[in-house]
């Protein structure tokens, strides 16, 4: 796992736009925005300010005054799985959305303008995993990376990696780097040699309540302490903190059930 942005300063702040095909933003749609803000504010130290309202009430999460994520309000009659959704940068969102359709994916929302911030679309791949597209204008995306409280990696959990990888390669121009292992179906998606996301095939272990889905990793100083704090705040632990090849990680949910992973990235 690495920071997928082109270049950052020592505090993680970006110097340039996200390259097309790079995950550039992450957003969460929930039923209780006030409670969700309180949860993530206490967990990651986020503050909030209003954002574009095309899809209903929406706030942007700030870390030390810099935008890191978004939280929106689901309509009361929409009973969808609560999930963090990564947005992938596009130079021409209409053309990218057309490619999504041609390659067997679905465009559920948009493309549409988000005030002067940019243009967005919400899509799903052929296996049903939801992701967003973002064409930046005033809002370029996550403004800081690689520090605690920021999204640091995105991983697709799906039935098998090979078939769906072809979709993402064709739409976004990714190169793939498989992990050679008899017991692990995993590959890394790269742009110009830089890792930007991962795909893990988990077969029948794909959750029945949500199917294939993207999982966002958030950087923390200490996953064990963050897990304890999360539980006190009403979250739940799916997989306790443990050491991995990428650092110490724990997979958890917020009180509404959105899954995500806490990670202290190995340096």
TrEMBL record:
Residues 150-265 form the VOC domain. InterPro entries: Anthracycline_SecMetBiosynth, Glyas_Bleomycin-R_OHBP_Dase, Glyoxalase_6, VOC_core. Signal peptide: none annotated. This is VOC family protein. The lineage of its organism: Bacteria, Bacillati, Actinomycetota, Actinomycetes, Kitasatosporales.
């Amino acid at each position: 796992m690495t920071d997928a942005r082109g270049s950052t300063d020592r505090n993680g702040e970006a110097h340039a736009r996200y390259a097309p095909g790079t995950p550039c933003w992450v957003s969460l749609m929930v039923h209780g925005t006030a409670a969700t803000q309180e949860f993530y504010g206490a967990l990651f130290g986020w503050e909030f300010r209003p954002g574009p309202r095309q899809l209903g009430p929406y706030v942007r999460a700030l870390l030390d005054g810099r935008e890191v994520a978004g939280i929106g309000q689901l309509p009361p009659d929409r009973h969808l799985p609560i999930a963090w959704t990564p947005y992938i940068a596009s130079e021409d969102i209409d053309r990218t959305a057309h490619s999504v359709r041609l390659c067997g994916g679905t465009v559920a929302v948009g493309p549409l303008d988000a005030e002067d911030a940019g243009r967005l679309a919400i899509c799903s791949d052929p296996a049903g995993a939801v992701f967003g597209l973002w064409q930046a204008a005033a809002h370029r995306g996550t403004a800081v990376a690689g520090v605690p409280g920021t999204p640091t990696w995105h991983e697709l959990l799906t039935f098998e990696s090979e078939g769906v990888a072809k979709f993402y390669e064709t739409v976004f121009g990714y190169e793939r780097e498989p992990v050679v292992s008899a017991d692990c179906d995993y590959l890394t998606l790269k742009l110009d040699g830089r890792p930007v996301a991962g795909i893990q095939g988990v077969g029948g272990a794909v959750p029945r309540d949500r199917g294939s889905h993207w999982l966002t990793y958030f950087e923390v100083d200490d996953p064990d302490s963050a897990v304890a704090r999360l539980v006190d705040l009403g979250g739940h632990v799916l997989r306790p903190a443990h050491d991995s090849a990428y650092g110490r990680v724990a997979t958890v949910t917020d009180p509404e059930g959105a899954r995500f992973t806490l990670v202290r990235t190995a340096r």
